[in-house]
Write a structure and sequence with these properties.
The chain has about 400 residues and is an alpha/beta fold. It contains twelve helices and 14 strands. It folds into three domains: about 5-65 and about 95-165, Rossmann fold (3-Layer(aba) Sandwich), CATH 3.40.50.620; about 180-295 and about 335-360, Alpha-Beta Complex (Argininosuccinate synthetase, chain A, domain 2); about 370-400, no CATH class. Strand 13 and strand 14 form a beta hairpin.
Length: about 400
């Protein structure tokens, strides 16, 4: 393998990536460029700059990508009503292609010949980061320390940090036993007590949402406006994509909405149990399906539903930048031209119900749908021929069975 002169590291400033930074400097003898993305994880990111500088990094990138994250990744995914294995709203999965994209762009602009990440060799994220990087820059070199080094435990990590004077923060109180990932769409929790699928997650695990039992006793109604399949306003207030999701997160979380406990199938072959909080995304999915129910043709809606599981798997497995995902996205986006209007949701103690929807592009015709008066708009006698023709094959089969 050729020597590495400069590498772009996806850097959080935490223990793992700080050790990776130093390990890259020592193992590869290369210059390290750090990249820290703000995608709404709710943490102060400037300390990452100080930590990187203390480890001798000269090129430090800290970027606010919240608007790009929601506009170019979350919203396109929600146009497809995307859920993985019937439940998961893909909060971690959808953030990885954006991070991979910026890593590759920074590598190109800084003259780096490699990128590096802190994903382990057991998880999905290594696949997502690397498939994205290769799709965008096929000649890029990728360094995955967890698949190379000999550090196999937290004790090994702490010893390495001590040997190299890497500061380790000791927070007050007990340390969380969970591996967590947060962004503007969700918070995920894995590991620790959750590794026993029979054990219920303790209430203290949930950091974002109010317990449904403790949520307000009075329902909250919220109205969401859509244009071209994307949410553009909440309760009549026009908002940016990130603004919409931020507002919906606050509303959903206050009413105990968006909790999920799931055993999922990882792409690398194992099953994994995780808990997720996705309050705004849960409201957004419910509202988007409601406005589509009013504005989408039946066969278009059904075709979207048939293709959605494949689309969801592509995102979960790291194929956001693949030609097949882009092909599906073009079709999905074309279906959203008339997905315009307003949806009213009712939020109450962990549940969300669509209770109203209206659109200037509605396909709902009360003159046809009404039970009261259908004169001149629908001839009920036509149904006889319709039913006879659709029953023909079953009648033929029945005659054969009865002979």
């Amino acid at each position: 393998m050729s020597a590495v002169n400069k590498v772009v590291l996806a850097y959080s400033g935490g223990l793992d990536t700080s050790i990776i930074l130093k390990w890259l400097q020592e193992e590869y003898g290369c210059e390290v460029v750090t990249f820290t993305a703000d995608i709404g994880q709710g943490e102060e990111l400037e300390p990452a700059r100080d930590k990187a500088m203390a480890l001798g990094v000269k090129e430090i990138y800290i970027e606010d990508l919240r608007e790009e994250f929601v506009r170019d990744f979350v919203f396109p995914m929600f146009r497809a009503n995307t859920i993985y294995e019937g439940e998961y709203l893909l909060g971690t999965s959808i953030a990885r292609p954006l991070i991979a994209k910026r890593m590759v762009e920074i590598a190109l602009s800084t003259g780096a010949d490699a990128v590096s990440h802190g994903a382990t060799g057991k998880g999905n994220d290594q696949v997502r980061f690397e498939l994205g990087a290769y799709a965008l820059r096929p000649d890029i070199r990728i360094i995955a320390p967890w698949r190379e080094w000999t550090l196999t435990s937290r004790e090994d990590m702490l010893a390495y940090a001590a040997r190299h004077n890497i500061p380790v923060e000791h927070k007050r109180g007990s340390q969380s036993p969970y591996s967590m990932d947060a962004n503007l769409l969700h918070i995920s929790y894995e590991g620790g007590p959750l590794e026993d699928p029979w054990i219920e997650a303790e209430e203290s695990l949930w950091r974002w949402t109010t317990s449904p039992e403790q949520a307000p006793n009075t329902p909250r109604y919220v109205e969401i406006d859509f244009r071209g399949g994307d949410a553009v306003a909440v309760d009549g207030e026009a908002l940016s994509p990130a603004g919409v999701l931020t507002a919906l997160n606050a509303l959903g979380a206050a009413h105990g909405i968006g909790r999920l406990d799931l055993v999922e199938n990882r792409y690398v072959g194992m099953k994994s149990r995780g808990c997720y909080e996705t309050p705004g995304g849960t409201l957004l999915l419910k509202a988007h399906r409601a406005i589509e129910s009013l504005t989408l043709d039946r066969e278009v809606a059904h075709l979207k539903d048939e293709l959605m599981p494949r689309y969801a798997s592509l995102i979960y497995n790291g194929y956001w930048w693949s030609p097949e995902r882009q092909m599906l996205q073009s079709m999905i986006d074309a279906s959203q031209t008339y997905v315009n209007g307003r949806v009213r949701l009712k939020l109450y103690k962990g549940s969300v119900t669509a209770v109203g929807r209206t659109s200037a592009d509605s396909l709902f015709d009360v003159r046809i749908a009404s039970f009261e008066d259908d004169r001149g708009s629908y001839n009920q006698k036509d149904a006889s021929g319709f039913i006879h023709l659709n029953a023909l094959r079953m009648r033929i089969a029945a005659r054969r069975r009865n002979n």
